[in-house]
Amino acid sequence: MSRTIAHISDLHFGREDPPVAAALREELTARGPRLVAVSGDLTQRARAVQFRAARAFLDQLSGPVLVVPGNHDVPLFDVFSRFARPLRNYRRYIASEADAFFHEEDLAVMGVNTARSWTFKNGRISREQIERIRDRFAPLPERVFKVIVTHHPFVPSPGDPDPSLVGRGVHALQAAEAAGVDLLLAGHLHVGFCGDVRAHHLSIKRSMLVAQAGTAISVRTRGEPNTYNWITIEPPHLVIDVRGWDGTGFATRSLTRWVKRAQDEWERESP
Ligand SMILES: [Fe+2]
Ligand SMILES: [Fe+2]
């Protein structure tokens, strides 16, 4: 079975662009990825009506979907809900488990919830979650390609003078390194890019790829159109096809090919 992941992010229902949402739904249905990974911010304000719209969108996709919450999926203004039951609507409409796990034959994908009630705008990972990264991936054989999905990024966007990165990110990366993780998917920035995590984290020795997705369907774009990542894993190759909205449909905006060399080094084959 092909290893393809449609990595979509920052849907922001409540501020979605309906024609873009419809086109994305049609494209994903037609392409049939092995997994749709959604890296958070499904809603604009964590309202029930927005979660219902997100649920309806996900229900129309065929095949498995793995979702993590984002900071926008925690209520901001309803202070009681924010602290007493921050993920109530998320759990009710989207997924009962905030750290979802997908494992099927040669592909394992773990969601790690980084959204927090307190003013950790950059999100945070708990010690228990770091343990879970070890526990879930450790028993899997090497041939299983291992992926982590978070909302908040582990690395800043290129040229960002003030990087805001997920709390305890380095500890989580150390666990990912020990567990043999190859790919980290995230969102939040509404800017898409990819690279090797070691370019930012010099203490990490394992070559792990980072793929950030832009916002797939929301009007909250930041200098680039709506995009999502179509990722094809064919060891030793991995291709990240950034599919962008061109006004009428989604089309390839950039294609980055990576190859895994000796000593587990990911090397970019094309810009
Ligand atoms: Fe967002
Ligand atoms: Fe966010």
Structure in a nutshell:
The chain is built from 6 helices and 13 strands.
Low-confidence stretches: none
Instruction: Name the shape in a single word.
Output: globular
| Order of helix and strand elements from N to C terminus | EHEHEHHEEHEHEEEEEEE
* Helical coverage, percent range: 10-25%
SS element count, helices: 6
Counting DSSP E segments of at least 2 residues, the number of strands comes to 13
Rg (C-alpha, Å) = 17 Å
Distance linking N and C termini: 28 Å
Q: How are the strands of the biggest sheet laid out side by side?
A: 3-2-1-10-11-12-13
Integer average pLDDT: 93
Main β sheet profile: 7 strands, mixed
Q: Tell me the fraction of residues in β-strands, as a range.
A: 25-35%
Ligands, deduplicated: fe (ii) ion
Structural class: alpha/beta
Folded structure, characterized:
- 22% of the residues lie in helices and 27% in strands.
- It has helices spanning 18-31, 48-59, 79-84, 88-93, 127-137, 169-179; strands spanning 3-8, 35-39, 65-68, 101-104, 107-111, 145-149, 183-186, 193-196, 209-212, 227-234, 237-245, 250-261, 265-268.
- The strands form two sheets. The protein has a seven-stranded mixed β-sheet with strand order 3-2-1-10-11-12-13, covered by helices on one side. A six-stranded mixed β-sheet has the order 4-5-6-7-9-8, covered by helices on one side.
- Helix 5 packs parallel to helix 6 (169-179).
- The chain is globular and about 50 Å long.
- The mean pLDDT is 93.
- It binds fe (ii) ion (2 copies).
- One fe (ii) ion (FE2) is lined by residues 41, 70-72, 151, 188.
- One fe (ii) ion binds next to loops.
